[in-house]
Design brief:
Elements: E1 8-11, H1 18-29, E2 34-38, H2 39-44, E3 55-59, E4 65-78, H3 84-89, H4 97-108, H5 111-117, E5 129-137, H6 145-158
């Protein structure tokens, strides 16, 4: 039996706005090679966990496709167990896991994030499960990112998402 080919999805980093655009710029520059989400968000959105070989069309705040990345590794770990290589790979200038944690808690405890979750008191702690991903920027190779994005959106519409 052959392995299932990698899935194609939209890569949305943070919410639209300055943070998303900063993260997308870091991906393009090669500084950002890791990202962290919460396992509970995948459950909330009924989204499958990413897996190695999956590809994502990265969009900016305007919804314009900017790049194509490929997932290289995925770990489900406690927030308290995020390591320094992962924190540094986030491409946000973190020099320590404590800096990574502070920056991510600012996001996870923000009003926008709590509104998204529908929980004004939402907090994370050491035991909160995170999805730590490693990815690589794929070479342009004249990819038609707009067509890939359209294909993803059509497939999502067919699934009723």
């Amino acid at each position: 039996m052959e392995p299932e080919p990698g899935r194609l999805s939209v890569g949305e980093f943070a919410f639209p706005g300055p943070l998303r655009d900063q993260l997308v710029a870091a991906i393009i520059a090669g500084a950002k090679t890791t990202t962290t989400g919460l396992l509970a968000d995948y459950e909330l959105d009924a989204e499958p966990l990413p897996r190695p070989g999956d590809r994502q069309v990265v969009i900016d705040s305007a919804g314009i496709p900017i790049a194509l990345i490929e997932i290289a590794g995925v770990r489900v770990v406690r927030v308290g167990d995020i390591d320094l290589p992962h924190a540094v790979g986030e491409g946000e200038g973190y020099a320590s896991v404590a800096e990574w944690r502070s920056g991510h808690e600012r996001f996870w405890h923000s009003r926008d994030y709590r509104d998204y979750r529908g929980d004004p008191a939402f907090t994370v702690n050491d035991d909160t499960l995170a999805v730590a991903q490693r990815f690589r920027l794929l070479p342009d190779d004249h990819q038609d990112l707009e067509s890939l994005l359209q294909r993803i959106r059509e497939a999502d519409a067919d699934r009723g998402q």
